[in-house]
Amino acid sequence: MTQLISLLTSAIVFGTVILYGAVGEIVTEKSGNLNLGVPGIMYLGGIAGVAAAFFYEMHAGHPIGIVGLLLSFAAAVAASMLGGLVYAFLTISLRANQNVTGLTLTIFGAGLANLFGGSLNTLAGGVGQISVAVTSRAYRAYIPALAGLGRVGQLLFSFGFMAYLAIAVALGASWFLNRSRVGLNLRAVGEDPATADAAGVNVTRYKYTATCVGAGISGLGGLYYAMDYIKGTWSTDGTIEALGWLAVALVIFATWRPARAIWSAYLFGVLYWAYNYITGLSRASIELFKMLPYVVTILVLVAVSLRRSKESQPPKSLGLSYFREER
Amino acid sequence: MNRHEPLIHIAKRDAFAWWRAWLVRLVAVVLALLASALFIYALTKLNPVKVYRAMWEGAFGTPRRAWITARDTSILLCIGVGLAPAFMMRFWNVGAEGQVLMGGCATAAVLIYCGRSLSTPALLGAGLAASLVAGALWGIVPAVFKAKWNTNETLFTLMMNYIAIQLTCFFVTKWENPKGSNTVGIINQKTQAGWFPNLAGQQYLLNVIIVLAVTVCMYLYLRYTKQGYEISVVGQSENTARYAGISVRRVIVRTMAISGAVCGLSGFIAVAGASHTISTSTAGGRGFTAIIVAWMAKFNTFVMILIALLLVFLEKGAIQIASQFHLNDYASNVVEGIILFFLLGSEFFIQYSVRFRSRRNKKEAEA
Amino acid sequence: MAEEFAVRMVDITKTFGHVKANDKVYLELRKGEILSLLGENGSGKTTLMNMLSGIYFPDSGHIYVHGKEVVIASPHDAYALGIGMVHQHFKLVDVLTAAENIELGLPGKTMVDRKAVAAKVRQICDRYGFSVDPDKKVYDMSVSEKQTLEIVKTLYRGANILILDEPTAVLTPQETEKLFAVMRNMRDDGKSIIIITHKLNEVLAISDRVTILRKGEYIGDMDTAKADARSLTDMMVGRTVTLNIRRDTPVDPERRLEIRNLTVRDAEGVTRLDDITMDVYAGEILGVAGISGCGQKELLESIAGLQNTVSGSSVKYRPTGPDGPAEELIGQNPRTIAEKGVRLAFVPEDRLGMGLVANMTLVDNMMLKEYRAGKSPLVERKHPHDMARQIVRELEVVTPSIETPVRKLSGGNVQKVLVGREIAMEPTVLMSAYAVRGLDINTSYTIYRLLNEQKRRGVAVIYVGEDLDVLLQLCDRIAVLCGGRLNAILDGRKATKEEVGYLMTSLRKKGEVGA
Known about the structure:
The complex is a heterotrimer of chains A (about 325), B (about 375) and C (about 525). By secondary structure, chain A is mainly α. Chain A has a single domain, classed as ABC transporter involved in vitamin B12 uptake, BtuC. In chain A, about 75% of the residues lie in helices and about 0% in strands. Chain A is globular. Helices cover about 75% and strands about 5% of the residues of chain B. Chain B has 14 helices and 2 strands, in the order βαααααααααααααβα. Chain B has a two-stranded antiparallel ribbon with strand order 1-2. Chain C has 17 helices and 20 strands. In chain C, the strands form 4 sheets. Chain C has a 6-stranded mixed sheet with strand order 6-7-8-3-9-10, sandwiched between helices. In chain C, helix 13 packs across helix 14. The longest helix of chain C is centred in the middle third of the chain and has 16 residues. Chains in contact: A-B, A-C, B-C.
């Protein structure tokens, strides 16, 4: 039982990272933009948050956690939206290929983040690894009274606020896409931009906004990873990139539905960590275990194309540019 | 009458002289280098000219460095060349990373399991065959689903990468040497069995020769063979392909087999000809970078040489700066990203002409 | 007086490139009437209406709505004036529900109030006799449901002037009746309606008045009560124009193709070609007449091995006449047909999307059908090179070089390249679809000359056309298709324009088809 709780706890922490990435990408893809820059954007969000907190903690004599939190959160959102804006400008205004632009963004984001993450402390005259302990503690704060309520309390209340925010953002995105007027227009843009255009929707503006807001959400995944998952440090081991691609996989697995992405993200977390809780696994088979999320994603992708169910398809104009002259 | 004419008018260019297109690209690279210089200056407060000289030193400063640059360029080029037929068919193979790793794993397996029983030429032959098959297999799987059920190939090949990465990790733990190191170590370090031989005293000459040969062959294949012709017809218009009696499905599967096989070959060269070990960094993101190389070169394998060289130069140069100025290697990715952003953006000005609504027009419109 | 008219369009001219789609066209729509806009394909009906609904902007002319001159620069402007158009290709998003499609792009509160939308939709439906399920997804709808949704959508957006572009083309007779009933309800409610059509019986059945266009020009209008099918046909097709196209008497025509019970259904299960049985003779030009979309494309593509046909369909190819050996073409693909030695040339309607590869050079396009020849894995470019040279020289193709991508050529030159290639294969059967569409007079005559040469060579030529004058003066026999059925086969030398026009627009009962 304790084992199960501990598995679920780590699955939720893991799932939260990719949930942000996936929900942001769903919002982006609903506008017809396939942004393969998710890992890069998560990197940007992560490093911007860490850097903001780092400079704050360095310059403030007695850093206050909540201030560091607010600063780093704002910096993360701003930096990732900026990444989204670069992608949007290149693909929407300059009509560059979406796949290539996205991959470039991933290379750029990973490079920038790891450059600063690895060198920031040295550049600032310090020694060794970067660390933003105060801010990170604020991110990881939970209400002890609730978390102390036995196993249920541990399972439900022992996380930092961003784990709950992720659920709220996913539910919010779900509500926004399915219920709101703007969400309706956005879905139409991703499906059939010509029709949306004819109905009076400003396609370009919708694509820009969705891509930037989506990037802002994805970037929070990087922030959560840096502040909570690895406790306010930085590591240049490429984990964020792997998680970023897993977020792209999660979008497919959840068939472009943010609400479904919530439990799917935790399921990915369980699949990823399950090897820790199965006794007698060799290290080799652990590596095979880590393959599971990708394998099930492919199975879902194939099943979706076989069933041809209209509800689970990617947005119809995904990956295509829209020019009005061509109607 | 023209009251709704937009401020900026964008029209597709009909003809644009090739030299003007290259001029635009050159301007883009220069602007990108300026932007990167600014970035480097902001970071290090160093004279950018000095920095670029240091980069040149890093890439070509000594014969040894130049050969390493050549070695890495040829692997990147080989992957790009492998992607060319797929892209020409408008098949988004973003699975090169996985195809390279599978080729590398197959080679490593041959070197490890047959290292004692076979001679080096036999090992190389077997490794080559195994890597081609493994890479082709990794390309065929998504192609079959695309051809039969129109499964999205971008997402499918992307996922295949990570399966390949985990498989590689699996093999690394299986072949671990020494135990507990979590690396395979140098395979056949003592016997050098299955390693590329030195040619004219140069360790990496064979790599370069093989890749150049592949580059030329692919160029000829795409331009002068019936299969190459079929690929471009399918890529341009499936409707026309059907009209001409070309079996679209067969072309998709066959082309992806070739694309995957050449990517697998890159894995073979990387393992038997360069690192003599296998890990996930055998591909190390080059599968993704090569996508950009292939795309930018518009399927022309000779142009790929230039672009691959540019990117590897940046990488080597940035590593040099990093060690000189106590940054880390990732500076190269940043500069690479900036240059690619500029190049991607520049294509727009080659494809389209942009005219601003002139004032005279505006007056006419108001009149 | 002015307010008697819902819409007046005066001296409207619109040019595309060098083609005048509308030349000083006049149109008036009175309040509370149904007006038919009648004309052949390419007569400029849809172009005119697109200018009223804001898709195109006229080069010159004036538009008055309810007596006031207006500028309509976008669909949005049109809606603001109460003008709504239902296009032939529905502008609906598949994965959205009816209600969502209706609300799309409209201003309003943050949340879409589904109940209020449903209530308003129900109100519109009750008023005019529609039935729309607001929660039904568009992809679950039949064609007629989608059309209903489009009409409701325009009404929901406050349109009181409705334009329907060939609404009955996709409907069954029962559905057409239903549509007409609703249209009458709307008219009685004060809406003004324009229906674009070329079916005479419908003009007579539904409309109060009719305006006729021909070749982009306004011909006239009249009260439907005073019109009949003959008088309308005369106005629509116009007087016979002598074109001086050469037409030889066929020499020893022998049966080359035997088409039997050819039936084609599309992916949605709609019958596109219905039980066609006819013969095609070597040494003659068989014309195929019909309103566009009546099965011409399916007919040619079935013969070429590009269509899935319903079982029981058969097309037999007899290289040496009716008593010789036969080759079944149904169930084959273009490659196997060619491998069997059947030299079948096909000039499809979509020249750059099917017949040629737009981005390839003239030379590479020459190889499209013959590149496979020979055992060598390499393509042979010498012959295509000579071929391209020859075609450029003989057909006077205007091109910078034979290494120019064909997309850079003008329409007429593209067609010369395509026809030239198909003729160069020395075919025994030559099929062409709308071979002179969009071409200037000179190029058109070049094409007629080429087809006649092929006929003299003993080729079985099938010419799908839209200009009745050309069909009547070029073809030896004319097969008239109507709604996927073979309505008649006429003698090209005896048939009249009115006769063909009538047969194109009014389906005869089965069994009446003569030879």
